[in-house]
Amino acid sequence: MPDEEVLEEGVLNPIKTEIQDPLLQAILEENGTSLTAPTELEQPAPVPNPTEEVDCVVIGTGAGGAPLLARLAMAGLKVVALEAGPRRNPITDYATDEKAQSFLFWNDERLSAGKNPVAFGNNNSGTGVGGSTLHYTAYTPRAQDDDLHLHRDFGVGVDWPFGIDELEPYYTELEQFLGISGPTPYPWSGPRSKGYPLAPLPLNGAALLMQQACAQLGIQTSPAANAALSARYYQAGIGWREACTNRGFCQAGCNVGAKASMDVTFLPLAEAHGAEIRADAFVTEIERDEKGRITAVVYEQHGQTVRQRCRHLFLCAGAVETPRLLLLNELALTSGQVGKHFMAHPGMQVWGTFSEDMRPYKGIPGGLISEDTHRPKDADFVGGYLLQSIGVMPVTFASQMARGRKLWGQQLRDYMRNYNHVSGINILGDCLPHESNFLELADEKDARGLPKPRLHFTAQENEQRMNAHSEKLMRDIWTAAGATDLWSFERYAHVIGTARMGLSGDDAVVNPDGRAFDVPNLYICDNSVFPSALSVNPALTIMALSLRTADKFLAAQARLDGNN
Amino acid sequence: MSAPLYPSGTVRALLATDLVTDATRAALQARLDAPVHEPVFFEPHTYALFQTVAARLIPQPDRAEPIDVVGGVDKRLAEGKADGWRYDAMPPDREAYRLGLGGINQAAEALFQHPFVALSESQQDAVLEAVAAGTAPGENWQQLPVGRFFEEMLAELTENYYAHPLAQEEIGYVGMADVPGWTHIQPNSLEPREPEEVK
Ligand SMILES: Cc1cc2nc3c(=O)[nH]c(=O)nc-3n(C[C@H](O)[C@H](O)[C@H](O)COP(=O)(O)OP(=O)(O)OC[C@H]3O[C@@H](n4cnc5c(N)ncnc54)[C@H](O)[C@@H]3O)c2cc1C
Ligand code: SF4
């Protein structure tokens, strides 16, 4: 097909001026104000052009998209969420089986480059109504104030454009709304206006052994804050949610509704207030008028191409798909920062075998935490990390073991027979932005004909030192707990950065309110706007930013209305 | 500590009870009842080679009917499905498997002057050791990073094996009994539905 090249390029970049293809010109004209309807011949597959315009379209329904969707709907705005993945019913559709649950993951192929290529799929990113929160472990620690000020404290990286006081009210609101289980008082993070609404969940085998060993070594631990309910919980606007049954399968989806994923919390709240959520809707294009304002998005749903017009767009597709959409549509690129400063948490794990019968499938996988390593005294690196006990499902464990330990043959089967006796600890640590770590569009195309994203990641000296420090400490802990046959697995988890927030459009994509510097009606809210990686799990902070972005947007709208 | 053994028959027995949700039972029962897979993507020779390789990577001398670990790969490649990522240094999965299996045969010929399937088990293991160590001879490895290929293939076969209910039974996993929830979650504390190790 001779036009294929042009067609592809045109579909991806609908406002590029050099498009010569008559078919595309027809599509473009239709996007504009032209009154001459294209003929059947000129446009064999017209994108229906509904006249209906909504106040806001939200792309993605994960930790970044769902809270703001609810907030905007509750403010009375007409909002539509477009979600690439399916909508499922956890109670009937979620098997307690890793393979059967693979639909929860973003399985479109990403290319992983660099010296430490990051694993995606089940290591990283989800899809479906609820996004990655459908399969997160639900550890929900707060960031600490100094996490936002690496540059101030160490002279490297960049600071967040505000301090923790901006996030604290949102953390509190989220903890109360989601029903987070955790200890009060919590030993580490700074002042908080309220304790956790529910008591901590019970500790499982890995958590208990880690707790004892850390006590021997003088490391303080605590049951973790976890967004799973330790008791039945009434959620305003939604109703009762059931308590966690300790079934340990959070990473393949909770079929109890106990885990605060977005599909059982913010999304029903949003729908109760009139928001519309369209599942299986994969956005490919973002259209603008000649002034550069976004006018509509185009998405594919069940083989149809659909256009939705909107006054404002909230892009919440996660730290890979958000920059990919921006690059595909040549949007918000003036800072030159889209795709740059890709970060991933060092997630070093240490596994050991215990004589005790541990059964790592029981209890929430996210049980015990220590933030004593937040700013270690003997650190030879910038920032810090936290320690967490981990539960593990058999297929995930076996696969990781095969990659990391490289056992095969009879040795592999013999080792796996110890599954019920293994336990792990892992860290999540800060990661510095580095110019060699970035996302770009590859030449290779996916099934839709869109370029695949390629992500370059190489652990730099700081990450390597942090890994070495934490590996030694975790080996000491497991040795004190009586473990044998220790092995470590160097991994990088969580995609962070790629469309960062800052004070100036010279070095950031969005301003402190989450609005793109160079597109007046585009907001971005997900992992991609983090200016630095933080030394804690990201989801609670993404949700806090989401509510804050919605409030900033609503306040700006109110000001505009006042000026009318 | 020698690795524990667990009694057989427990997972099939569990699936017959109401301790398992319908969705979970459907997924596991389908795997237990799966008919023999006929290759769709690989041609018969390559498929036989792949099965021989898999039999060394995940040996099952204890099973009268080995769990099929390669059928799933053939099916996935035929459907063009991915698991969300690929090493940039690797060609697309279909290409990688074709080149990699061909490379294993080239290494077998170079080291033992016979195709892989014709070698003794210990010779086959020597070939695979060279592949795992990244030292395998063969021109295909000019186009395919040998160590990465070994890692990817091993991980996929391992996942296919441990996703099978009988392999889960082998390691004493009963997380699939998901209806009642778990109360005995401390070390050395079992629920009645958790099989005890055979001493
Ligand atoms: C196994 C695992 C365990 C984790 N555990 C924890 C934990 O314990 N604590 C924690 O804080 N974090 C955890 N995380 C990370 C956490 O889940 C993510 O950081 C967080 O959910 C990311 O939020 P997000 O809004 O940026 O993206 P997502 O939640 O991934 O949402 C993005 C959504 O956008 C949709 N989308 C993408 N592109 C398009 C498009 N073109 N059109 C339409 N829709 C699109 C996607 O389908 C997806 O639903 C874990 C992650 C994994 C993989
Ligand atoms: S452990 Fe609790 S929160 Fe996690 S999946 Fe099971 S019931 Fe849900």
Automatic annotation (TrEMBL), chain A:
Superkingdom: Bacteria
Coiled coil location: none
Keyword 4Fe-4S in annotation: no
Family, per entry: Belongs to the GMC oxidoreductase family.
Protein name: GMC family oxidoreductase
Pfam families, per the entry: GMC_oxred_C, GMC_oxred_N
SUPFAM superfamilies: FAD-linked reductases, C-terminal domain, FAD/NAD(P)-binding domain
Domain Glucose-methanol-choline oxidoreductase N-terminal stretches: 125-346
From TrEMBL, chain B:
Organism: Hymenobacter tibetensis
Protein name as annotated: Gluconate 2-dehydrogenase subunit 3 family protein
Organism classification: Bacteria, Pseudomonadati, Bacteroidota, Cytophagia, Cytophagales
